[in-house]
Design brief:
Layout: H1 2-23, H2 28-102, H3 116-148, H4 153-177, H5 182-201
Helix pairs in contact: 1-2, 2-4, 3-4, 3-5
Keywords: Membrane, Transmembrane, Transmembrane helix
């Protein structure tokens, strides 16, 4: 029983720490280091209990399930906050409508603005980062894990294929949680380039 509960406990601490790190705006460095250490400890415990291949698979499964549970538990709070914001915006819109009715006799020429273009550009950039960039990053990481993990090649390929959508989803969620996405995008692109160079060079080594 201990071999199951202890890895799950550390796994839960890892997800909670990552969630808190993504949501906070202060002392992120210390929390990132702590989250990374908890993730390593959880992976080591899974590996000691079930081996490298199954341990990594269980780590991915439990992490995804815990993340979904955490999102489901906290979503109602976010919905309530969104409802409050919507009500305040509706009240503000009604006030503006009343003021506009009072000044309806004043003629105001229509102004042509291009404020929508930056919004569309941001949406397209977010799609590209959360889609192709994160997918390439996740693929490179999974292929590096295939080369680094012990065991048969077929088993490691199965693990990589299983982890790819999970890493892609987590990476996309991480990108979307960042207020400024240029820095994480550059980090992902840099890691993908370095990882690709490693994947190209290692097979040529005798």
């Amino acid at each position: 029983m201990t071999t199951i509960l202890l890895p799950i406990f550390f796994n839960l601490l890892t997800i909670l720490a990552l969630w808190q790190t993504w949501r906070t705006r202060q002392n992120k460095t210390a929390k990132r280091i702590g989250s990374g250490l908890l993730l390593i400890a959880s992976g080591v415990l899974w590996q000691q209990s079930y081996g490298a291949e199954f341990g990594l698979t269980f780590l991915a499964i439990t992490s995804a399930l815990m993340a979904m549970m955490l999102i489901g538990i906290t979503s109602e709070k976010f919905k309530q906050n969104n409802r409050n914001k919507a009500e305040s915006l509706q009240t503000e819109a009604e006030m503006k409508k009343t003021l506009k009715a009072k000044h309806s006799n004043q003629f105001k020429p229509r102004q042509v603005t291009f404020q929508a273009w930056p919004i569309y550009a941001r949406r397209v950039g977010t799609f590209l980062v959360a889609g192709p960039v994160t997918f390439v990053f996740s693929t490179v990481i999974c292929l590096l894990l295939v080369m680094a993990l012990p065991g048969e090649l077929a088993n490691t390929l199965v693990i990589a294929a299983f982890m790819l959508p999970i890493m892609w989803s987590l990476g996309a969620c991480w990108i979307l949680s960042q207020p400024k996405r240029i820095r994480p995008s550059m980090i992902m692109a840099g890691v993908s380039m370095v990882g690709s160079m490693i994947l190209i060079m290692i097979p040529t080594v005798p």
